[in-house]
Amino acid sequence: MIEFQNVYKSFKDKHVLENISFTVNDGEFVCIIGPCGCGKTTVLKMINKLIKVSKGKILVNDMDISQENEIDLRRNIGYVIQ
């Protein structure tokens, strides 16, 4: 399970994600769609800690990723970017 809890992301003074919350349960397939620059890739990169969350929490299997080792986390996550 992947869960975003009130996640925010800013790059310097530019707010790109504000108060994002959702859950993806085990076995579910999710497609994130939207126009260019809306934050799709940012959301995906935050899951495996390629980009740091500004505020809020991301949980993977009920574990806060901010407390997890990046390498161990990335070994257990797969996603496809087109």
UniProtKB/TrEMBL annotation:
Which GO molecular function entries does the Swiss-Prot or TrEMBL record give?
ATP binding; ATP hydrolysis activity
Stretches assigned to the ABC transporter domain? 17-82
Q: Which InterPro entries match?
A: ABC_transporter-like_ATP-bd, P-loop_NTPase
Keyword NADP tagged: no
Q: Which UniProt keywords apply?
A: Transport
Q: Which Gene3D superfamilies match?
A: P-loop containing nucleotide triphosphate hydrolases (3.40.50.300)
Q: Does the keyword Transport apply?
A: yes
Q: Pfam families attached here?
A: ABC_tran
Show the PANTHER family listed in the entry. Answer: OSMOPROTECTANT IMPORT ATP-BINDING PROTEIN OSMV
UniProt record similarity statement? Belongs to the ABC transporter superfamily.
Protein name listed in UniProt: ABC transporter domain-containing protein
Q: Taxonomically, what lineage is the organism?
A: Bacteria, Bacillati, Bacillota, Erysipelotrichia, Erysipelotrichales
